[in-house]
Design goal:
The protein is 97% helix and 0% strand. It contains 2 helices and no strands.
Length: 144
């Protein structure tokens, strides 16, 4: 009987040690799972940081592009201003040309009056008015 009892106690201690080893293995598995979760958190954090960095890069690129577009717009505006200036200059030149023509016609009429060629002058003036009318028509056509 005592021998049996000793063996029983021995087996019980052995089972207890086995349970303890099992608990230790379970704790080790838990620690391993925790380390794995920690590695996963770190990996996600690094990924988020890389994404933030890529977004900062994209924002810098967008800002650079907006700057280039503003510069192109300023260049287009300078070009339009230059063209408007040239058009004003051409208009002033046409105006001076019309004034020279008007002064020339006035001198011509004065000479006609001095020569007394009234009917001839009237015919010329009609032709001149007709020519001017055609010229104005052409000018309007060109502007269209």
């Amino acid at each position: 009987m005592p021998k049996e009892s000793r063996r029983e106690r021995e087996r019980e201690r052995e089972r207890e040690r086995e349970r303890e080893r099992e608990r230790e293995r379970e704790r080790e598995r838990d620690r391993e799972r925790e380390r794995e979760r920690e590695r996963e958190r770190e990996r996600r954090e690094r990924e988020r940081e890389r994404e933030r960095e890529r977004e900062r890069e994209r924002e810098i690129e967008r800002e650079t592009e907006r700057g280039r577009e503003r510069e192109r717009e300023r260049e287009r505006e300078r070009e339009r201003e230059r063209e408007r200036g040239e058009e004003r200059e051409r208009e002033r030149e046409r105006e001076r040309e019309r004034e020279r023509g008007e002064r020339e016609r006035e001198r011509e009429r004065e000479r006609e009056r001095e020569r007394g060629g009234e009917r001839e002058r009237e015919r010329r003036e009609r032709r001149e008015r007709e020519r001017e009318r055609r010229e104005r028509e052409r000018e309007r056509e060109r502007e269209r």
